[in-house]
Amino acid sequence: MTASYDQYREDRLGRANVADTPERIAYYERLATLGTGALWTVANRIEPWEPASGSVPMLWRYRDLREDVLRALDLVTPEQAGRRVVYLENKGRSDVVAAVGWLYSGLQVMAPGECASSHRHSASALRFIMEGSGAFTNVDGHRMTLGANDFVLTPNGTWHEHGVAEDGTICIWQDGLDIPLMNALDANFYEVHPDLNQAVSHPVNDSTAIWAGAGLRPAGVAWSKPYSPLLKYEWAPTYDALLRYASVTAGSLYDGVLMEYVNPHTGGPVMQTIGASMQLLRPGERTRAHRHTGSFVYQCAKGAGYSIVNGQRFDWQERDIFVVPSWMYHEHANGSDREDACLFSFNDLPVMRALGLYREEALAENGGHQPILS
Ligand SMILES: [Fe+2]
Ligand SMILES: [Fe+2]
């Protein structure tokens, strides 16, 4: 959209178009002393024609970050740091410490035998395991053991702590939270558990034993919480589900073979404010571009390829993380003709949908592909 077209719309369609005069400037200055302002001086900025995200598309290469993440092991203890995390800062969102939009993300590292203190907060949280063995997360007395590409929830208000077993290895995982959203809403609380570490009061991995049956739900088990009773989504059944689905579907034009992690009790998103998906791009697959409201954080879980976001090409390989801001065109490609590629992602779509704000649009021009600008 050109500046002249915007000007045309503003001239013709009732947008603010008021030139400064000495008299008007004096008036604005007078209003400012009263804690007020003239709406027409800000209307075009605060009411854009369409979402104009302040976030920029970015990619963080794991091979650039990994050594520095590991270095944190020598610099701070989990007790000192609370959480030993290197966070991902979007160039356009450093004021709210967001990776994109209102979503936070970081890379957390723990050594064998370490366990952070138990806490809870208003922010909904997830982790996606990147490397290492022996990691565990406790959520409200449920302990889950975690391996690479496992996805685990620590929903809003649940007591949780993370650690690595004595006989494990150094573990790194990606955290995803809606901390910036909670702060934007002035609704963020944080508490440390009175006992520092909570007791494990259920059999280990009971959440998956009860709720992860394919197409089955346990008879007579009640669940009234507003988040998924399945707290861990393991990689093996997730990948298997993608392969099975891929065997019978052409997939989405925009996402390839995409499956959403769901709350098995409702079929809805895993948490109230954060949704998550895993998608598979077949060998050689290149999707078309679309855009929609909602902010997305992706991690390559398998393979290699590239995505074009707002005209910028980002090449990714396993463990690289990239973001797609709201209402920016994006498309994905598997870089291999032999191997499939998998992208994990989390997003704020449950918020968009709950508030009636979800909107989606395909790129019509150029065969559905963006020209690459950089
Ligand atoms: Fe937490
Ligand atoms: Fe999309």
UniProtKB/TrEMBL annotation:
Originating species: Sphingomonas canadensis
Signal peptide span: none
PANTHER family to which the protein is assigned, alphabetical: 1,2-DIOXYGENASE PROTEIN-RELATED (PTHR41517), CUPIN (PTHR41517:SF1)
Alphabetically ordered keywords of this record: Dioxygenase, Oxidoreductase
Pfam families cross-referenced by the UniProt entry: Cupin_2 (PF07883)
CDD domains xref list: cupin_GDO-like_C, cupin_GDO-like_N
Start and end residues of each Cupin type-2 domain: 107-171, 279-343
Name of the protein in question: Cupin domain-containing protein
Presence of keyword Transmembrane: no
